[in-house]
Amino acid sequence: MPSERLQKIIAAAGIASRRKSEELITSGRVQVNGQVVTELGSKADPEQDHIRVDGKLLQGPERFTYVALNKPKGYVTTVSDEKKRPTVMDLVQKVKGRVYPVGRLDWASEGLILMTNDGALANALMKASSNVPKTYVVKVAGQPDEGKLDKLRCGVSIAEKGGRRVRTAPARIRLIREGDNPWLEVTIIEGRNRQVRKMFEEVGHHVEKIRRVQYGPLALDVPPGDWRNLTLLEIAKLKSAATAPKLTLAPDVPAPARVLKAPISKLARVPKPLGRSRSPMPSRSEKPRFAPRSSGPARTEKPSFGKRPSRPAQSSSSRSPSARSASAQSSKFSHGKSSPSKFSRAPRAAAAKPSRVPKRKRD
Questions:
Q1: Closest CA to 43 of 20, 18, 51
Q2: Domains (range + CATH), the chain
Q3: Residue 218 in contact with residue 68, Cβ under 8 Å?
Q4: What are phi and psi of 245, to 5 degrees?
Q5: What is the DSSP secondary-structure string of 43-66?
Q6: Residue 136, strand partner residues
Q7: How many CB atoms lie under 10 A from the CB of residue 32?
């Protein structure tokens, strides 16, 4: 295993934080292979070298522990307090291993706090560029109008230590309970000191109560003063949220009013110009009109036809001899019998045989 800085090895073993580990080194309380080390930046191999702190041999890095704590009001989010006030460390004394808080909630705030000994994850979550969303439930004095809430959604200028003013990132704000002192849900992606309180002070409203209900993918689900270990899935989601691409939180914008479209029959239809002027099209509600026909009989009337001219009667004398013989022959069939059908074949007239010319005899 490659050599690492001595204060990092001591902090990973759960003895103290890195800053406290540096104090242990400079005070001469750390030994490496039997020799006292007081110079900061000294390196050692935790697998090959024997490292002792106050005479106790280090057992190697401890296992990572991840805890979700519901901090009640009246506790300070720190490992130790100079004023001897109660700290969040008093609430996690039964947790195996040494854990420390990720981020802070002030003395009067309450809600969800992540505690762990995973330094890499803690640093990734607390970076200003991590943009991990944090959701709070806030009770404010008075009723802020929609204009003030829109101002908070877009970002306001707040004062930090030293008098320097910074502009907050866009936030999401929605009303969850109406009243003289309403409750609002506020989601921000930054972690500035007392940021939510300062934001509402800028628009003229004091924050009476504040509770953090969500930190990234984690939701508050334990009673005040209690804690629980995170599941493997929650740990994976936390690491993914810390390393995910950074996106800007878009402010909540009220949904636009729904516009109802007018029926097509009520809309004016404007013909598109196509290079040639055209007569305006009739509306769909009107039926097209057609000019009546100038000539021709009406459909209800039947066409009238003129009578055929009668043929002139022919006298018997004017007919030819063959025609007279044919009519005489047909009269035989009509005598005493029914008339023949139209498909009956009329008898042919006997054709006259040509006269033979006698052959001349040869001499």
A1: 51
A2: 4-57 (3.10.290.10), 63-252 (3.30.2350.10)
A3: yes
A4: -60, 140
A5: EE-TTTS-EEETTEEP--PPPP-E
A6: 186, 212
A7: 18
Q: Which of 45, 90, 106, 226 is catalytic?
A: 106
pLDDT per residue over 277-308, tens digit each?
455 565 555 565 666 565 555 555 565 665 66
Backbone dihedral region of 164: left (phi > 0), alpha (psi from -120 to 50 degrees) or beta?
A: beta
CB 133 within 8 A of CB 189: yes
H runs (alpha helix) in 2-51? 6-12, 18-26
Rounded CA separation 293/7 (Å): 109
Q: Which long-range CB contacts under 8 A does 300-304 form with residues at least 24 apart?
A: none
Nearest to 201, CA basis, from 128, 142, 135: 142
Q: Among 186, 158, 164, 191, which residue's Cα sits nearest to residue 174?
A: 186
pLDDT in tens, 146-203: 999 999 999 999 998 888 899 999 999 999 999 999 999 999 998 888 999 999 999 9
SS3 content of the chain, % helix, strand, coil (to 5): 20, 20, 60
Q: What is the pLDDT of residues 149-163, one digit of tens each?
A: 999 999 999 998 888
Q: How far apart are CA 320 and CA 293, in angstroms?
A: 55
Query: Integer distance in angstroms from the first to the last C-alpha of the chain?
Result: 157
Query: Can you tell me the distance from the alpha carbon of 125 to that of 106, in angstroms, rounded to the nearest whole number?
Result: 18
Locus of tokens 């005489």:
328
Is 252 a known active-site residue? Answer: no
